[in-house]
Fold:
Amino acid sequence: MFANDSFKEGKPNANPDSWGWTKIGDNVTIGSNATVLSVNIYDGAVIGAGSIVTKNITEEGIYAGNPARKSRRL
Structure:
């Protein structure tokens, strides 16, 4: 799931100009039922199933959990 509305006003915002952007690098694997907020994910990252990505992922590795954290290098 990708979520780009941060609910800054406490409710959904219909104006796409206020939404965040999600950028996914090359060769990124995202497990099932993961939630990705408005972040950048570096090339070659692996996101574990069910993880919640709340911050930019800036280096290659395996990330898992809530919030997603790097569990090991690749």
